[in-house]
Amino acid sequence: MNVPLTKIILARHGATDWNTQRRYLGHTDQPLNERGRKQAKELGSALTHFHLDAIYCSDLRRARETACEVQRAVFDAGLSRPPLIADARLRETDFGWIEGLTYEEAMARFPEEMTRWYEQIETRTPPGGKESLSDVRSRVCDFMKEVSGQDYSRILIVTHGGVINSWLAHIGKKPFWENPLKHGEWTECEGQEVRETE
């Protein structure tokens, strides 16, 4: 069964220190760094013409701070301030043992576990983690189905790279590993539907 979806804009939060240092950043609640705050403000300026009905974001600080900058920019442009709703289903995955490690450190410390994870990312969790890629996709689809039932014309969703990649792969727009959005970037999804996960 397919569920019609409100038109959405997906945006990746601004950068944090760990992002800049190429560390695995999942549930650790890091704030934006100076570069990330600049990216968030630029994102807000870029989206003021969309007349957003609502802004949804991950409940993690880096996403909330980014969403607040967009909300502020919309209001400063003389438009109605859209409601901002944080939702834990939009969180990045929990990276378990490798949370906070650089990509190189994780591979050096857990070479076998990392290799198995990358080879079976759909069904295997990160070393010591709790969710596989299919688990992340399932909670994101639950969120999207719920949002599609709201009376919105266009919404913004501020979330994380893994969540965005999972969703774009699910709707057939981009393969997961292509990483289409950098920090502070956005893409619009028109006329997509939520397919039931298997």
From TrEMBL:
InterPro entries reported for this sequence: His_Pase_superF_clade-1, His_PPase_superfam, Phosphoglycerate_Mutase
Transmembrane regions listed in the UniProt entry: none
CDD domains: HP_PGM_like (cd07067)
Entry's Gene Ontology cellular component terms: cytosol
Active site as annotated: H13 (tele-phosphohistidine intermediate), E92 (proton donor/acceptor)
Binding annotation for substrate: R12, H13, G14, A15, T16, D17, W18, N19, R62
Keywords of the record: Hydrolase
Record-linked Pfam families: His_Phos_1
An MF annotation (GO) of this entry: fructose-2,6-bisphosphate 2-phosphatase activity
Alphabetical list of Gene3D superfamilies matching this protein: Phosphoglycerate mutase-like
A single BP term in Gene Ontology: regulation of pentose-phosphate shunt
Protein species of origin: Paenibacillus sabinae T27
Entry protein name: Phosphoglycerate mutase
